[in-house]
Amino acid sequence: MASTADYKDRQFLAVIGDEDSVTGLLLAGIGHVTDPPDSQKNFLVVDNKTETSAIEAAFDSFTEQRKDIGIVLINQHIADKIRHRIDTYTAAFPTVLEIPSKEHPYDPEKDSVLRRVRRLFGE
Amino acid sequence: MEERADIDHLLERYLHLLHEYTSLRAELNKLQAGLYQNLARANFAAERGMRYGQDQYDDRMQASRRVVAFPSSSSPACATFEVVKVEESGTADAAEASVSKSNEAVVSEVQSTRREEDGDKEEEVKDSLAEETKPKSLEPKAKKTKDPLRWFGLITPMPLRQAQAQGVRAVEDIVPKLVSINAEMVQVEIEVRRARKKRAKAEAAAKKSEDVTSKEEVTI
């Protein structure tokens, strides 16, 4: 059960995605850079050169280290790269949501929520 | 029997949530597809070498849309999410409004008291008050340009503005509903598993007692 203290300060959305996904979401006004000297960003732009370890580190930072993130949005094709982490992540806060990207449309087969549904119905 | 009805009831609720989740998913896909299309159109029409992307992000950006979470009304164990717009300039706007209001009041007061006096004098008072208000009301206005569109210049193409509108809709309307439903689904899953466990225990106990009675009958 989540207590009020768990989510009281979680006021930001974080995003891990390709450039277009991040640009689209930042245009909506969710981007935030904390005050210096930390200057922590709440987004990570992933391209072909981004290492999986960097994605994992950003995911860890948003879900475990930072206490001001309420929702983590991640492109589904990027979530696939760290699928083991996404599927084993069970904390209520921050909550993780997979979103489609430009080149990779949403695939229900990979959606962790629908995988849970299948497990519940014994498939 | 009672346990089975409970489980059926929970599963029915779960399926309703699943339906809501899938329809919201479809809506999000549609919005995101439109957003990417608009971004592509903006990039296509942009000046040579220009791309609406991370090179133009403002490194001092502050979130104008933030998450608010509170206990759900249907089941207090899980949270409901909302994304709200934070008015950075809200206080400035309010201050501006109060300043102009008070000045309007002063102007009308002056007008009423001086009605019988000369018209020219009245004009002078109005002008001087208007001058006083001008610098005060302009100051806060200068502070309130936090719109991320401005990272990409003063005049931005229509597709980029449309992409922003779609992004706002996705972030404000769809994403918080999706995560709230997900939280509720997790809660119902827990309840279903608990109910199934309880039913299994009850069935095992019933079977045991049946075996005992049948053994007793055999011995008699």
Automatic annotation (TrEMBL), chain A:
Localisation: Vacuole membrane
Topology relative to the membrane: Peripheral membrane protein
Matches recorded under InterPro entries: ATPase_V1-cplx_f_g_su (IPR008218), ATPase_V1-cplx_fsu_euk (IPR005772), ATPase_V1_fsu_sf (IPR036906)
One Pfam family it belongs to: ATP-synt_F
Subunit structure: V-ATPase is a heteromultimeric enzyme made up of two complexes: the ATP-hydrolytic V1 complex and the proton translocation V0 complex. V-ATPase is a heteromultimeric enzyme composed of a peripheral catalytic V1 complex (components A to H) attached to an integral membrane V0 proton pore complex (components: a, c, c', c'', d, e, f and VOA1).
Function: Subunit of the V1 complex of vacuolar(H+)-ATPase (V-ATPase), a multisubunit enzyme composed of a peripheral complex (V1) that hydrolyzes ATP and a membrane integral complex (V0) that translocates protons. V-ATPase is responsible for acidifying and maintaining the pH of intracellular compartments.
Keyword Nucleotide-binding among record annotations: no
Organism: Apiospora aurea
Superkingdom classification of source: Eukaryota
Family that this chain belongs to: Belongs to the V-ATPase F subunit family.
Keywords, ordered alphabetically: Hydrogen ion transport, Ion transport, Transport
Protein name: V-type proton ATPase subunit F
Transport is among the record's keywords: yes
TrEMBL record, chain B:
Basic and acidic residues composition bias: residue spans: 112-144, 201-220
Pfam families: Vma22_CCDC115
Segments for region (Disordered): 93-144, 200-220
Domain of life of the organism encoding this protein: Eukaryota
Matches recorded under InterPro entries: Vma22/CCDC115
Record PANTHER family: COILED-COIL DOMAIN-CONTAINING PROTEIN 115
Name of the protein: Vacuolar ATPase assembly protein VMA22
The species this protein was found in: Apiospora aurea
